[in-house]
Amino acid sequence: xxxxxxxxxxxxxxxxxxxxxxxxxxxxxxxxxxxxxxxxxxxxxxxxxxxxxxxxxxxxxxxxxxxxxxxxxxxxxxxxxxxxxxxxxxxxxxxxxxxxxxxxxxxxxxxxxxxxxxxxxxxxxxxxxxxxxxxxxxxxxxxxxxxxxxxxxxxxxxxxxxxxxxxxxxxxxxxxxxxxxxxxxxxxxxxxxxxxxxxxxxxxxxxxxxxxxxxxxxxxxxxxxxxxxxxxxxxxxxxxxxxxxxxxxxxxxxxxxxxxxxxxxxxxxxxxxxxxxxxxxxxxxxxxxxxxxxxxxxxxxxxxxxxxxxxxxxxxxxxxxxxxxxxxxxxxxxxxxxxxxxxxxxxxxxxxxxx
Length: 355
Fold this sequence. Notes:
Elements: H1 3-43, H2 46-58, H3 62-71, H4 79-115, H5 124-154, H6 157-161, H7 163-168, H8 170-180, H9 182-197, E1 205-208, E2 211-218, E3 222-227, E4 232-236, H10 239-242, E5 246-247, E6 255-263, H11 269-281, E7 291-298, E8 303-311, H12 314-335
Antiparallel strand pairs: 1-2, 1-5, 2-3, 3-4, 6-8, 7-8
């Protein structure tokens, strides 16, 4: 008998068992989650639906890998081959469990997206929750990946033998690594501070580096600010711990805005004040909380009129201020053109040269 044919026949039966085990695991996975999906639809609960969805993704590889890992020891295989196969699928099992742990955090993410929508007008609490979860979710993901890699490496005997010496030199190596990765560690720690203290949140309106924009993305070590003209300003996380900046929506999205109008001393201030009120009442951008008009400065030629108004958020505030400015100028042009700024000059007899 051909030795190669005999070796092939020796592997044929264990191979068929392994394929059958994988097939049964796939069928079992489908059946388990078909029942779980049916139960979730009956409860019609957001958390149940999200749990079934992401657990199905996270266990799609785990079921077959676990089946092979458990059945290899009872197969009629040479000890070396059985050990190598079981070690390989043990590594796959560790990676699959890590993937499942990462997928399960998405259940919380789906729940937060539905229960705390950032599109609501009063979204302060929602933005706070989203910001904290995104930062902690990234930290959790990196922690699971790091822990999985450690468990994978510790399955190799050579690494276990050198683990004591590695721990002995961990102090010196830690100092060297900390010095080399100081900027990264500083931003990582700053990310934890941002998550705990809430100086910024997603969709906050801020002024940083002289630019006005929104917090679009908060990473583990960086923050993306969307500037009003759609440019993106990328800043390290430590910037928001070490530098002062303006946050217009720290406690609430409501803001106050001003419009300055310059007019002649003959301007009827009370009528302009009433016109401002009429303009604000006609605009859906005004939140009907605060308004006023006062003379805030007077020069030798003009009066400075300051129109004060409140608005629900910064984007509406910009539009409202432009609208009020246009309407007040139009009002003066049509009703009181003589009150527009002018320069007066008085000429005395004999002051001009005669030709």
